[in-house]
Amino acid sequence: MGLSRGWSRELWLTAIALVIGLAGMPALIFYTGASLLGRYEGASPVRIYESVYGGLKTGSAAWIVILGPYGLYLTLRALKGWWRLGAKPA
């Protein structure tokens, strides 16, 4: 697959993060909310997917749900780089 190269590895990690955001995050939000708060009337996994994907058109917080895993990856990568810069001996 050529994952040792910089750009191809970044593209694969970006694609994986977006798939997790598109497919996994709404389900994770639903099941976590249902287990912690209990299910409310009319709640279903299908409805949360409809709500998130419908929110993409209106510019709501659905973009945060979808791009959240990628943002976490970028944050961790930035922290790793910052840590390496600070770890150099003086």
Would you give an account of this structure?
The chain is built from three helices and no strands. The protein has 90 residues and is mainly alpha-helical. It has one domain. The radius of gyration is 18 Å and the shape is elongated.
Characteristics of this structure?
0% strand; 90 residues
Summarize the structure.
The chain has helices spanning 6-37, 45-58, 62-86. By secondary structure, the chain is mostly helical.
Number of domains: 1
Taken as a percent bin, the fraction of beta residues is under 5%
**Quaternary status of these chains?**
single chain
Counting DSSP E segments of at least 2 residues, the number of strands comes to 0
Silhouette: elongated
Output the number of helix runs: 3
Order of helices and strands: HHH
* Mean pLDDT, all residues: 86
End-to-end separation: 39 Å
Q: Give a quick account of the main beta sheet: strands, pairing sense, barrel closure.
A: none
Helical content class? over 70%
Uncertain segments are: none
Compute the gyration radius: what is it? 18 Å
Structural class designation: mainly alpha
Give the topology, please.
Layout: H1 6-37, H2 45-58, H3 62-86
Helix pairs in contact: 1-2, 1-3, 2-3
